[in-house]
Amino acid sequence: MNDTTEKKPRAIALLSGGLDSTLAISIMLDLGVEVEALHFMTIFCNCTSARRQEGCGSEARRVSELLGVKLTQFNVTPEYLSIIKNPKHGRGSSMNPCIDCRIFMFRKAKEYMLKTAADFIVTGEVLGQRPMSQHMRAIRLIERESELEGLVVRPLCAKLLPPSIPEKEGRIDREKMLDIKGRSRKPQIRLAAEKGITDYACPAGGCMLTDKSFGRRLKDLLEHNPDAGMPEMRLLKYGRHFRLADGTKIIVGRDESENNKLEMLGKGYLKFQVADRLGPVTLAPTDAREEAIKFIAAITARYSQGREKSLLLIRSWDNGNEKFLEVPPAHDEEFARWRIE
């Protein structure tokens, strides 16, 4: 006897760990679609919930467990750096290459869709929500360049878009999807409440590349070091950043947590810290000139306890080599103009 039961449609859902992608998967599950979540990790995510600080990867894992779907994660930062440096379709208001980013992620998702014999891609995109990548022309461009035309389902705004192939074929019910548009998150927050989803991260997105302060740091880095890689990019997330008059780049920690991060990530850098009291860890290049080293020590003293004193003892070290400098704390007007942010 032949089995005439229709096979459930299978979808690969792009899951950031944020509210929109969570809701998109939930809607697909309600429509009887078999969903596998796909999460692309980069060092530029700053998305966390109000109560946790683990970041996007852990949020994606938590959401997949909540919804009962399989999750596959890939760290794509090394490949993604080339897009950040040379985006074909330009950048947004900061250093965010949103259109190129979506094309990159969609191409990756298509590879995985074909590999796993899934039928289509699902995203949490909302028409008009992102000024650069979620208007109609950009949506069509991204689908075309990723060779996914008609194979991307956007449950939150599907009724405002041309029907996708799965909708045309009747594999998913278009009428049970939504028509959310614009930048307000109130409809999504209401829907989350209706579905009993109360703990979610980044209802408004979590990409550091859209942040103006981070963007200035990244722009400065690429102007001075076009070949910068992951180690340099990671350091952009921590501390106060300065580019001194001679081109020397320094990073000054703002609290104990950042000091620990700078010590951990600062291999190959010259480090400074006040010797006998609390103060920041400062990173500088090991080839910094002697005059710059004295100034860096003075800036370190400025952000340390005891900055009201005439002199502070600053320890500098690199690869086991240790030196001590006694310097007067710098005054803000001496170096404020060199701050990147």
From TrEMBL:
Domain spans labelled NFACT protein RNA binding: 239-339
InterPro entries in UniProt: NFACT-R_2, Rossmann-like_a/b/a_fold, ThiI_AANH
Pfam (any one): NFACT-R_2
Boundaries of every Thil AANH domain copy: 10-157
Transmembrane regions listed in the UniProt entry: none
Single GO molecular function: ATP binding
Alphabetic keyword roster: ATP-binding, Nucleotide-binding
Superkingdom as given in the UniProt entry: Bacteria
PANTHER family: THIL AANH DOMAIN-CONTAINING PROTEIN (PTHR11933:SF6), TRNA 5-METHYLAMINOMETHYL-2-THIOURIDYLATE -METHYLTRANSFERASE (PTHR11933)
Name of protein: Uncharacterized protein
Species in which this protein is naturally found: Candidatus Abyssobacteria bacterium SURF_17
Native organism taxonomy: Bacteria, Pseudomonadati, Candidatus Hydrogenedentota, Candidatus Abyssobacteria
